[in-house]
Amino acid sequence: MSEQPPQGRTLDLTVDLPATPDEVWRMLTDPKLLPQWFAPFVEGTGKVGEPLLFGWSPDVRWKTLLTVSEPGKRVVFRDELAAYQEMGPTSGPMVIEWTMGPIAGGTRLRLVHSGFGDGASWDEMYDGTAAGWGFLLWHLGETLRRHRGQPRITLFARRPSTLSREALGARLFGPEGFALKPPRKGEASVQLDRPRTLLVEHAGLPRNLWGRLPELNDALLMVEMEPGSGTFHTGIWMSTWGLGPAGEKDLQAALDRLADRVFGAATPA
Q1: Which of 55, 16, 235 is nearest to 132 (CA)?
Q2: Which CATH architecture has domain 9-146?
Q3: Element housing 12 (H / E)
Q4: Cα separation, 114 vs 125, whole angstroms
Q5: Does CATH number 3.30.70.1070 belong to domain 153-263?
Q6: Which residues does the chain have with pLDDT short of 70?
Q7: What is the pLDDT of residues 158-186, one digit of tens each?
Q8: Fold: same for 9-146 and 153-263
């Protein structure tokens, strides 16, 4: 049961995972395990009634409150409403509820994210959140299948743009950027210091793309045009395992060079 019936637009997503319900519950609540698949920086205790602070980079941070934690069964977070105020009225509390149960070979995990407003000003946030959760649920599955217990290193380039999303997408996925071929789900090629095989899991161009890079120890790549009008940010994120300091440095430099070509050289904050 939810804290209260979901109101307004609601995201309802399900994924099957190769782990027990107790293992999945720990991946959702343990501040030491969350960085394996969710935000790379997590602060908090993981105790009910106490906040968790998630950080993707120094300027991308999010605070939520853990309100319910039933081992192997259910987890509920409630986000601070202040973070959503610029989009207009919500339809209720911003609640993220996870429920899990055993299936043959693992666990079925269900996510219900409720509280989105119904007005047009919420459209970008709703669509962007749906894509973000789609990636993260897939990432959780890939972590459990291929990288369980391995330290994850996150590399990223996040830049602003005033171009239309269509114009930016032409640069980002065209010859100046990833040189993505073909631009659809399945085996593709991307330019990352040199041509690399990308097993595309999702291609929602121009707004988002994610997939797996088998030549880089099954690193995961996600490209996301964030919600916003006028000037908006695009993030190029990579989860890597076992590349070592030199490999990580070289790959980060390749991401920075790609972003420089697409967005222009980064300026100091």
Answers
A1: 235
A2: 2-Layer Sandwich (3.30)
A3: strand 9-17
A4: 12
A5: no
A6: 1-7, 81-83, 85, 88-91, 267-269
A7: 999 999 999 999 999 999 999 999 999 99
A8: yes
